[in-house]
Queue: 3 jobs
Job 1
Amino acid sequence: MVISRFIAGMMLAVSPGIALAQSASGATLPASAPRGEALAQYARPHERVDIGSGRKLNLFCMGTGSHTVLFDSGLSDWSVVWALVQPEVAKRTRACSYDRAGMGYSDPARGPRSPMAIAADIHALVQAAKLETPLVLVGHSLGGFNVKLYAALYPEDVAGLVLVDPSQERTYDRLREHLRNRAGDALAARMELGDADSIKRATARYADCATAARTAELDPTTDLYKRCTDPVIPALGETIAAERISLQVTSAYQDAQASELANSVYGDTRGDEAYRYLFSGQRFGAKPLIVLTHGNFDASDPREAADYDGAVWLDQETAALSSRGRQRVVPGTDHYIELDAPGSVVDAIFEVLNDLEED
């Protein structure tokens, strides 16, 4: 499915074709990767920044440098997924990750967690924390769309972007003709209708998880918990694994992830017309922009091959939003490129920083 790469973890039980987060669980750490206490520091709150309206967002910054890099995670995740990348970036410049409302150590928010609401929170965080702008924004999956939207809405705040297997708006509006030419009408239709069905089922499942957690915290020993949470990621260590359980059982976490999917570019298409003109032409001018695409797929499966071709097509279109945009495939990776090949993400960030220093 074209959008299947963006819905990891809990979707494993919804569709047998979606098995994305598991690849990260077997990731081999590079020799320089953080271990022990360096990883454990992601298992506790850091600076909880008051962004107004009685809410605080967790912000974790390290390092110094001429530009600040700000990370946003994907659906169901928070800053912990950057534990193999952020410390490496901090060796060169200021690197900050944050937790979205209701995720990690950030307070929950009222109202739908739409991309617009998330972008507004990022803007409030940047201002309240006095982060030095323009920023280099890095986002994975739905977080990739969050930072892409932020860059369009607040261009003065953004110097460059790295999008890691990013979610894409208006997926089939942009891709339908290409897929029909590539795979034929029947297969293209099955892919589109299958994606729409999977989104509906995933949204319903997330909503059921949130309802259950409001009655009582989820029991980690039950099948319900497994259906409502991401798989364990051994590469991040036992301390983080235990802390993830303690956070994922809560109603704040379950409510936030359910709302994020229901109001995402996949669950709610009411923003499509705005996205149509917002992401047209070279919206980002000459700002450095790198889009990383996972490399693993089964070329012998016609549907999976067409799905992957569509993912690359969309990522290339996103890269074209900047005259200095480029898209590249990271071999040997699945959806969680930052866990499967963290060095590739670090290299992309450094490449953007190099471009900015040469300007």
Job 2
Amino acid sequence: MKKILVPLDFTETSENAFVYAVEMAKLFKAELVLLHTFELPIIDSQMAVPLNYAEIYDTLQLTNSNHFKDEISKLRIIAKEHKAEDIVMNHIMMDGDLIFAIKEVVQDEDIDFVVMGTNGASGWFDSFIGTNTASVIADLSIPVLSVAHDSKFEKIETIGFTTCYTEKDIQALIEVLIIAKRMKAKVKCLYVKTSHSDVKGEIIHKWESHFENENNLEFLIIPSEDIEGTIEEFIVNQNIDLLAMGTHKRNIFTQFFTTSKTQKMSQHLKTPVLAIHE
């Protein structure tokens, strides 16, 4: 991991995400690429007084540029507070759509990892499946760490990983283990076994044999018909500091975490979510 992208709008939400990115950059000796976007106004061509669009653009760009510089100074102070003042931070300011800008910067800058804040949601996982985050996850082929709007950084000691013992999950778990080793964290792999589960015992044994030399990995199989409730209890009871999952599960998780029951349960959960592409 050499470059980490952090989209910023200079709210508390993106500041929280920035702290997580700083801690990741420290672990991997990575460079931070800080992205700020701004929208141009829609000009009504029927206006009686013609406007100089180029002048408007220049004014907006200058205003945003000056604000960007001021905010970057604050972020450097935060980095120093986290003993990360030596981390290389590059700054990019672009006009236009956030998702388009993220995709363009990821490609042009060879970004390996994205950390972004999510906000405006009624519950913990609702924020993760918000429009911007969901679009970034769907459009990118690199890991995306989503940090809830009210999440404050805490040392990541335990990473949860949900699985259905598919082939795609193997590579995702390998990536999670690489990150966990840098963090000196343990990984707890959860499979919720329902009465309709069709995973055979030999598949589970094959999985566990594949990872038998991973001393920081633990497999948990919990029988339950309440998948969403079991996952939330797993996060709380196992002291999960970060929840990782393969992106092919996103539709399943959307269903799990948008029920009225889990919306109520999710209010107190602020666990960051790491989406891994298979």
Job 3
Amino acid sequence: MNPISKIIRWGIIGCGNVTEMKSGPAFQKTEGFEIVAVMRRDAEKAADYAIRHGIKKYYSDADDLINDPEVDAVYVATPPDSHKFYGLKVALAGKPCCIEKPLAPNYEDSLAIHNAFSNKNLPLFVAYYRRSLPRFEKIKSWIDEKSIGEIRHINWHFMRPPSAIDVFGEYNWRTDVNVASGGYFDDLASHGLDLFVHLLGEISKASGVNLNQQNLYSAKDAIAATWLHKSGITGTGSWNFGCQFFEDTVTIYGSKGKITFSIFEENNIVLETEKGKKELFIAHPENVQLFHVKKIQEHLRGISVHPSIGLSAVHTNWVMDQIMD
């Protein structure tokens, strides 16, 4: 696609919670972007969103939004089981697209989405926005500068208690095996695994064990994994959604030190070497996808290449499938 010089008019499919603060306002705050239409199957909710956010058009049919001549690009913010359905429609319409993560519930569907856009030479972005956040860019700079020498190993341990929704059995698409077979792993671990590839390079091997320990819902709730980056860096991870306490700790071990941080907690990033310990607090923007969206604008205008595109998201899906196999 040629660089775009005019205002790029976006339509959003699925204006739910993620679009209220995380992403929707980021599109509105990015110079050269405008949201002109939103879609939700519930027309009343679509109208409410449009009114509250100052958007002139709303639809209850995705085809109407996708084929609207005033919509230049589409952001798909629905649950992952519908990403392929909507993504292929956007590709057929010949429009750039940003899709929420994970790109699809499995590798095969994610590859099909990527191929549909690639075959038409259309930009496809995926909302792994941590690749664009300043706190993780700082960690990448420490790695690239060899602040801890040669990287040897990365470990992520994540655990949390079941939510009230889990305990009382209320429906949640994130734990519906038909929508996300890995449950919260699909929704949350995908962020970290994708970031690790961004920081340390692609993964050549991955495996894991998974089960449902609590029997509170149909998806898996306990996963443990090992993997190998193509560079020779080893990795381990464990995710459990039925523990008493919350913990979210990533440690990258190098030949001359280590880096410690969290994927979801907005706390200090820590660099430890023989010279001592350095701690930095780098706040997220009010709308956490802001830098991700700004980089979409730069990509579409030919200024830079976005760090989270369809192909990288396909690789993340492949890694997750290997762990959940």
